[in-house]
Amino acid sequence: MKGWRVEEPDNLFPAPQDAVLYLAGLAGFWGGIGAFMIAVGGGAPSLVIATISVLLIASVFVSMRAVRKLEGRITGRLVRPWPLGYPSFRIQVIATLPSTVMAAAQKLKWHAVIVTMAMYALLILDFVALVIWAAKR
Questions:
Q1: What is the maximum span of the chain, computed from C-alpha positions, in angstroms?
Q2: What does the pLDDT average to over 98-121?
Q3: DSSP SS3 for 8
Q4: Using the 8-state DSSP alphabet, how is residue 11 labeled?
Q5: Which among 79-83, 88-92, 118-122 has the top mean pLDDT?
């Protein structure tokens, strides 16, 4: 067995900044959704909800920029800038795969399994927040 290390394609994250933007955007988006639902469901003040919303929207832009750059590196063609160009669904799926998260963590020389588990724990938080928020209504 080779271990937990995933083989990273050379063109996936050529610079550490690409991996940082990808992980920050993904964590901000996934974590922001859960934080927003918890804040709304918990009756947080409107200033808190507005702050979370601004951070969530900013992380969406960072995430989409990173995914558009990722599509350019994978397919070899440039994606038109937002709002006219969006990454293809195929690339969006590839961008959320655990192997892509692991490749970004490996580029930064972080422990890939722990980073991936933390990222997917944010999705579990989103699901739990959605269930709790929906149950309160």
A1: 52
A2: 93
A3: coil
A4: T
A5: 118-122
Please tell me the distance from the alpha carbon of residue 85 to that of residue 38, in angstroms, as a whole number: 32
- CA 81/CA 122 separation, integer angstroms: 28
So where are the chain's domains?
Answer: 16-136
Find the mean pLDDT for residues 20-40: 94
Contact 59, 25 (CB under 8 A): yes
Tell me how far CA of residue 40 lies from CA of 21, 29, 30, 61, 87, in angstroms. 27, 16, 16, 22, 30
Residue 57, number of CB atoms within 10 A of its CB: 13
Q: At what angle do helices 98-107 and 112-136 cross, to 10 degrees?
A: 130
Residue 79, token pair as written in the block: 């994606």
The whole-chain average pLDDT of the chain stands at 87
Terminus-to-terminus CA distance in the chain, angstroms?
49
Chain segment 84-105, per-residue pLDDT in tens = 778 889 999 999 999 999 999 9
